[in-house]
Design brief:
Layout (H helix, E strand, L loop, with lengths): L3 E7 L15 H4 L3 H8 L2 E6 L9 H8 L4 H4 L4 H7 L9 E10 L5 E3 L9 H7 L3 E2 L2 E7 L4 E7 L29 H22 L2 H8 L7 E9 L6 H5 L4 E4 L3 H9 L3 E2 L13 H11 L5 E6 L1 H7 L3 H15 L9 E6 L3 E3 L4 E3 L3 E6 L13 H4 L5 E4 L3 H8 L9
Parallel strand pairs: 1-11, 1-12, 2-16, 9-10, 9-11
Antiparallel strand pairs: 2-15, 3-4, 3-7, 3-8, 5-6, 6-7, 12-15, 13-14
The protein binds zinc ion.
């Protein structure tokens, strides 16, 4: 009887044929004995995460896989990032993802990341708790130059423009309401006051004076984007009938997805979403977690970042590195289902996410395995799972666990 599930998502794993790889994808070309062994014992298929012809973002793709229809629950990246930095969101909060950047006195953006500043804790603390017209701003530091920002108060809307053009050199403009509601107008007004106030505070901060003296770029502006309102949403465990769910990820967005859905976040030292991330630590943490949790979400990021740089060789090598630790999954007990897939394809050729489907496998004792010999896009297309969508993943997991409700008599 299967009682637990481990869902392992490699970001942007799927890809397109690469000429230098004999027209194989990085996954197909990589030497992956451990993935292949699991694959032979699995039921396999392909997945269009958001459906055919839809190019998924990482946030929307993960929400789909975890069974949260994006039409209903996705309002922007802000609330997910804010959850990821540990802000407990409340219904009606408007959340943003933030970057501490550098502007001149005319608010021309000199650097969107304040010289890739490594730690913004002091700067976030200086703004955290600020109140403007009855609206409270919660500002918490994220990794490096990033921050999660929440506006909490009555009568707010996320339908406001971004003040940030996303290009260095451009000036910050005023936030505009994007509809005629008084909520959107009010929110835009408060945000414009916040920008002014926060610039004054940051510019006069001792830490920034020090940075200036040392010839470093000041973190004197908080750039906001990805506005979204926090929706009422059911906790993952309650929605799908698990006892305890956890998330093991290095990237802020993925921790955010976990926290947003009410999963516990398990920190792994050295898990930094970079190529030198602590893969061994993450797999060990996942195995340990399976003793306490009946649902474990394990995420690895660099497969996506490498493809976004067009680095197909790096992607292939990183897949081979992951494969080494995949051997650890042999240690899971007979009560565990392992699902391995990606949130979307990231095509090295495009240096971007693509709508190409991704391979997916379901590995569990007693599953009707397909005896496929190589974990890869085209091999998995021969599997008996066929072509599924992200929304099919959770029902499939429940089926393997014998937990699906009966339709009819
Ligand atoms: Zn992704």
């Amino acid at each position: 009887m299967i009682k637990k599930a481990l869902v392992f998502i490699m970001d942007g794993l799927g890809d397109r044929p690469i000429e230098e790889f004999d027209n194989k994808t990085p996954l197909e070309y990589a030497n992956t004995p451990n993935f292949n062994k699991l694959c032979a014992e699995s039921q396999c298929g392909l997945m269009y995460t958001l459906g055919r012809g839809k190019r998924p973002g990482s946030d929307t793709a993960h929400m789909s896989i975890f069974g949260y229809p994006i039409e209903e629950y996705y309002t922007g990246r802000g609330p997910i990032e804010a959850a990821g930095v540990g802000i407990k969101l409340e219904h009606g909060d408007v959340a943003f993802r933030g970057n501490f950047g550098t502007v001149d006195e005319k608010w021309n953006v000199l650097d969107r990341r304040a010289g890739r500043i490594k730690d913004v804790t002091v700067f976030a603390q200086a703004l955290d708790g600020l109140e403007i017209d009855g609206v409270k701003f919660i500002v918490k530091p994220g990794s490096a130059y990033r921050a999660g920002v929440v506006m909490r108060g009555k009568g707010l809307s996320s339908n406001v423009s971004s003040a940030d053009s996303h290009n260095a050199g451009d000036a910050i403009h005023q936030v505009e309401p994007l509809d005629n509601t008084k909520e959107a107008k009010f929110t835009a007004e408060v945000l414009n006051k916040f920008m002014k106030k926060s610039y004054e505070i940051l510019n006069n901060l001792e830490e920034n004076k020090k940075r200036k003296e040392q010839g470093e770029l000041q973190a004197n502006f908080l750039l906001l984007r990805g506005a979204g309102v926090y929706p009422k949403l059911p906790k993952f465990t309650e929605k799908w009938g698990f006892e305890k769910a956890c998330c093991i990820a290095g990237g802020g967005l993925y921790k955010g997805v976990g926290a947003f859905l009410g999963m516990d976040l398990i920190d792994v030292p050295g898990a930094n979403a970079q190529v030198d991330t602590n893969l061994e630590g993450k797999f060990d943490a996942a195995l340990r977690a399976l003793k306490e949790y009946d649902f474990v979400f394990l995420h690895v990021k660099p497969t996506d970042s490498l493809a976004e740089d067009g680095n197909y060789l790096g992607k292939k090598e990183f897949i081979e590195k992951i494969d080494k630790y995949v051997s650890k999954l042999n240690e899971v007990d007979d009560e565990t289902l392992i699902v391995i897939t990606a949130d979307h394809s990231t095509a090295c050729e495009l240096k971007a996410h693509s709508a190409d489907p991704v391979p997916i496998l379901f590995h569990a004792k007693g599953i009707r395995n397909d005896n496929l010999t190589k974990f890869g896009e085209r091999e998995c297309s021969k599997g008996s799972l066929g072509v599924i969508e992200g929304k099919d993943v959770m029902p499939n997991i429940l089926n393997v666990m014998g937990k699906l409700p009966l339709i009819g008599a």
